Amino acid sequence: MAKRLMKGNEAIGEAAICAGARNYFAYPITPQSEVAEYLCWRLPEVGGIFVQAESEVAVGNMLFGAAASGKRVFTTSSSPGISLMQEAISYMAGAHLPAVILNIMRGGPGLGGILPSQSDYFQATKTGGHGDYRVIVLAPSSVQEAVDLMILAFDLADKYRNPVMMIGDGMIGQMMESVEFPEKYREPNKPEESGWALTGAKGRDSRIIKSLFLDPEKLEENNLLLAEKCKKFMANEIRHELYKVSDRNRILIAAYGTMARICQTAIDELEAEGVSVGLFRPISLFPFPEKVIHDEAVKKNIEKVLTVEMSVGQMVEDIERCVQGRKPVEFYGRTGGIVPTPNEVKGKVRELLKLTA
Amino acid sequence: MANEANMIFARPESLRETITHYCPGCTHGIIHRLVAESLDELGLRERTVGVAPVGCSVLMYNYFNCDFLEAPHGRAPALATGFKRCRPDMIVFTYQGDGDLASIGMGEIIHAANRGEKFTTIFVNNAIYGMTGGQMAPTTMPEQKTTTTPAGRDVSLAGYPIRIAELLATLRTPAFVARTAVHNPMRVVQAKQIIKKAFRLQKEDRCFSLVEVLSTCPTNWGMSPADSIEWLKETMQPYYPLGIYKDPEKEKA
Fold first, then answer.
1. Is residue A222 part of a domain?
2. Which among B67, B78, B84 is the nearest to A206, CB-wise?
3. How many other C-beta atoms lie within 10 A of the C-beta of residue A91?
4. In this complex, do B46 and A201 lie within 8 Å of one another by their Cβ atoms?
5. B18 CB near a chain A CB, below 8 Å?
6. Given A69, A73, B4, B16, which is the most exposed site by the fewest CB atoms within 10 A?
């Protein structure tokens, strides 16, 4: 299929349709409102539905109800809205329901701002709601990757019957890039074949979808089932990318999303100056590519690991955990909607290596 | 000798053969039965999804013989919206108490009704939080003693009880909204007709429907079942008049 120039938010909406999803619920919030503005006319063209809900609390719970139908369902929002959806995400995880949730992150806490941020890493990867569960978290670094991962997100949600979240900083939603969609769009899935969806108790026993287990042994059983899923995420769904990683690297940068692309520019420019730096970019933030970052960091030539984020330091805790103290882990970040520039990243690298510009 | 041939009263197919956890004198059992009979008589059981609330009827999915979804507190109308929009060919109902619907879930019910979502809500109003042990609800009567209003509901601080049927009837969007009671056989028969009509309107893909049912809570009211019925008649019913508040079949074109 020919390449198209599209804004991230619109491309993500089209990607959901491409994945066979037809059921979308949302509430307006900057900087992702264009997803709803696109899908409100695009979904009816393909027989889909869009409900503009009264709040993100309602969005999350519409998603919960819709997911029980066994059809592919999704929502999109930005940080404060995602906070309001955590109730439903916890319930959906507890009830083993698939759903896809996109967070185009803006600066927080509180109302924060409307500019790009990566400050919802903890919320996304460490269980945003209450209870013993995790969601798969994917982080694209380009509009094309956002399209590819959005399609993957639906497959993973169905495969594990678990919510899947994609998080992008505001730039992913707002920037325009050329994208290519798969030649063949998926047909919507068939709930009757699921074996678990609520399709009416005709010719079978009635089904109950719930997260309530008053018997502690039953609740533990459910939580252990969720823990088993996490093990499967770790075994099967780790995704990452290495950039210019070699035995000559003195510094290994860890960054995700748009931040990783900015770091690539810094790495290219440093290379031209004769300073060798490699990049580790996790694509799945949960499951985190623990072994990859550990194994790359402990290589003899690496002097330090530098984590760069659009936050005051969140993923850096995972990097520290995985590097296990075997190399110094440093951090550079800007927050509040300020995006670190390649020059700032280069400056930090030079500072760590005690080089003068 | 009882046999199939002369059976004149039986458990509706939409109910399971099981013992409920409801207290003596509670009317959830009657209301469950009226819903189940309506589903049976309209032939809806095999394509119905119920949405259970948080509250005394949280375990109702164990008593009904149709597919069920268990909602977070107050959110049943949002779940019902999501499900019904995905499966407009199916029948969806929520069953909610007054804490669930009129307090934490007020936003969800008003907007679902205003969008005209084509599901049915059975709203059981017993003027108190039952499952958590008798705290004040938005529907608690003035002066009524609860565990969080031991001196009685002070309307200067807590306001007056919310009349849900009247509130929803003010919305312009077509809907069927009624208030019923089940404290004597005549009222049970009337309630049945109204609940069945609500499901019929959904079956005909007409409109949102809500049936409020005044209910007793002897345990948390601290009364005998018989005294509870008297209190419902003397205290609740004058404040919560029974009747049909909005009916698409009576509205002018």
1. yes
2. B67
3. 27
4. yes
5. no
6. B4
How far is it, in rounded angstroms, from Cα B7 to Cα A261? 76
Closest CA to B245 of B159, B154, B174, B155: B174
User: CA gyration radius for chain B?
Assistant: 18
Calculate what percentage of chain B has a pLDDT beyond 70.
98
pLDDT digits 0-9 by tens, B191-243: 999 999 999 999 999 999 999 999 999 999 999 999 999 999 999 999 999 99
CB pairs under 8 A between A and B: 130
Contact A200 B51 (CB under 8 A): no
Q: 3-class DSSP state for residue A109?
A: coil
> How many percent of chain A have pLDDT more than 90?
98
Strands B67-70 and A208-209: parallel
- Among A175, A205, A236, the domain-final residue is A236
The mean pLDDT of chain A is 97
Q: Does some domain include residue A357?
A: no
List the single residue in B with minimal CA-CA distance to A21. B86
Yes or no, beta carbons of A51 and B82 under 8 Å apart: yes
Please say whether the beta carbons of B127 and B141 come within 8 A.
Answer: yes
**CATH assignment of the domain containing A123:** 3.40.50.970
A66 to chain B: which residues are within 8 Å by CB?
82-83, 85-86
Termini Cα distance of chain B: 55
- Rounded to whole angstroms, the Cα distance separating A91 from A94 reads 5
How many domains does the structure of chain A reveal?
2
From the CA of B55, how many Å to the nearest CA of chain A?
Answer: 12
* Domain extent for A292: 241-352
Residues 43-102 of A with CB under 8 A from B: 49, 51, 53-55, 57-69, 71, 73, 87-88, 91, 95
| Nearest CB neighbour to B82, from listed A54, A66, A91 | A66
Minimum CA–CA partner of A188 in chain B: B86
Same domain, yes or no: A287 and A326 = yes
In tens, the pLDDT along A180-200 reads 999 999 999 999 999 999 999
